[in-house]
Amino acid sequence: MACFFRRCVALQLAEVCGLSEDVFIPLISAVPVSQKQSAADLRVSVNSLRQNGAVAADGDLQSKTQALANQRGAVVEEVSAGRGVIHFRLNRPILAQKLLEQLCSEPDGFGVKSELLRHLQGGRTLVEFSSPNIAKKFHAGHLRSTIIGNFIANLKKALGNEVIRVNYLGDWGMQFGLLGAGFERSGSQEKLRTQPLEHLSVCCAAAECDESVRSAAAEFFRRLERGEDQALALWRQFREITVDEYKRIYQRLGVHFDHYSGEAFHQHQTQNVLDELMTRGLLKTTEKGTAVVDLSGAGDLSSYATLVRSDGTSLYITRDVAAALDRKQRFGFDEMIYVTDKSQTVHFRQLFHILLAMGHQWAERCVHVAFGLVQGMSTRRGEVVFLEDVLEEARSRMLNNMRQSSTSKELEEPEQTAERVGISALIVQDFRGPLMSDYKFDWDKVLQAHGDTGVFLQYTHARLCSLLRRHARETYSCCDVSPLVDSRSVSVLQHLLRYDEVLLQSANELQPRHLVNFLLTLSHLVAVAHRELPVKGSSAAVAQARLCLFSAVRSVLANGMRILGITPVEKM
Ligand code: ARG
User: Fold this and answer.
1) For residue 29, is pLDDT > 90?
2) Looking at 74, 90, 106, which one is the last position of a domain?
3) Ligand 1 centroid, distance to 136 Cα (angstroms)
C-alpha cells in the first residue's frame, strides 16, 4: 500500500528530525515516472522540511541526510540528496509485494482509503450540476456541467463522503410564457408524446419569432405567476415530460440524480428571503424602484446585486438564495458545489456574498466550479440542439471506426460498446486540460484509438481483460511477485504508488485532469509492459507474477475510469 511506504519513510524522518511521523506523511510524494532522473521512488522537498521546522541551516540538512542514509533498512534501501529534495529508493521486491498484496486483497480500496485522504472523508457534499433549461437549447455547456458534476460526485463518494446529486432545472421565467402561448397556438399532444423535447423547442422557437404572440406570452406567464390551474397544469406537463426524457438520456451517459429541483419550486420561497433580508436591513430600494443588496462593503452601492425588479418580480439570484437556504435546511450539507460555465462566476460570487451577509457562515463552504466554453461541437445534423444528438453521433462514429478494425465482429452488443467507448472519448477529451480553458471540439481527434484519448483507455482496459480471460484457468495470487523487478514492471509499480496523491490533488482542486493523466500514463506504461513481458511461454512463477501485475493494473484502471464517469468495457 502506498501509505505503508510513506509511513516507513516518515518513521525514518521522525527519528532523525525529532518530530512526529505524522508531520511527514503529507510531505512525502512519489517521484513521477516521467521525471525520473534518479532511481528513487519517493521524495520529500527540502523546502517543506524547512517549513515544518524539520531542518534548519544547510549544514543541518547535510548531516540529517547523512543520518538518514546511514539508517537505511529493509524497506528504504538508499537515501540521497537531489536538487532541493531528498530521495528514497525502496527495496523493489518489497515494493511489488506490498503494493500487489493490497491490490489483490482489496482492489476497490486501493488509493481511496489512503491515510493521505483521511482528512477529506466523512462529510456530506451536495453537488448541483447539469441543470438544463426546459424548452431551451441544450448546449455543450450543459454537457460539460453534466460530466464534470458527475465526476465530482463520484470522486467525493469514492473518498467516503455522503453525496447528494441535485439537478436544478431552469423551469421558470418568461420562457414559459412563450412556451405556453406557443403551445396553445401550434402545439400538439401527439407530438409531445412522440418527440417531446423537439416539439417543445419548436413551439418555443415559433413563439419567439412571432411578434403577435408576445402579449399572449406575457399573459400566459402572469397566469402562471398567479397560480392559475390550467396554465400550471400545462407547465407541469412540460416539466414532467422533459424530466422523463432527460432521465432516459442521463442513463445512457451513466449519470443519475437524487433530486430534480428547479427555479419554479424556489420561486415560492423568494418572498421569505426578501422578508429576511428586509428584517436584517440588507435590502435597499433604489430610485429606479428595484431592491438591491449592497455588496460594496463601504455602503456606497459601488457594487450590488439586484433581487427585485422594478415591476416587483424576482430574479435568478433571488431564487438561488432561496434554493441555497432550502437545501441547507433540508439536506444539512457540509459543503455545496455548483458546476456551471464561467459566465456565471460573478453570479455565484454574489450569491455566496449575500448568504454570508445574512449571517450564514456555511456559505464559506459553497464552491462554484467554473469551466470554459467548447467551440464547434456539431453533428451531422448541424449545430447541437439536443444532448441526445451528441450521443448518437459519438455512437455512430465509434461504431464506424470499430467496424474498420477486425475485432468488433466478435462483439455481442457492438452498439452498446460503441456508445460506451464514444462517451469515454468525449469525457477524456473534456477532462484533459484545466476546466477553465476553452477548447475546440473535433470528432476525429476525440475518437482516435491511439494517443491520449478515452478510446485508448478503453482499449487498454479491454486488452487486459482479454489477457486475463485467456489465462482464467491459471491460478495466480500475489504470494510471490519477486520476479517483478525488471524496469517495465518497476515503472508500473512506481506509477501506482502515486495514485492516492493524484486523487488528493483532484479532490483538492476539483479538477479531473490529474486523474485522467494518471490513467493515460498508466495505460502507456502497461501497454509497454504487456508487449515486453509475455505471460504465455514464461515459467509458471514469472507468468503468475505478471498476471498478478496486469490484474492489479486492470482494477486500478477500471476504478479510476469509473470515478471519471466512464464505464469500462471488457471487449471492443
Ligand atoms: N439553468 C442554468 C443555465 O442553464 C444553470 C443553473 C445553475 N445553477 C444555479 N443554481 N444557478 O444557465
Assistant:
1) yes
2) 90
3) 12
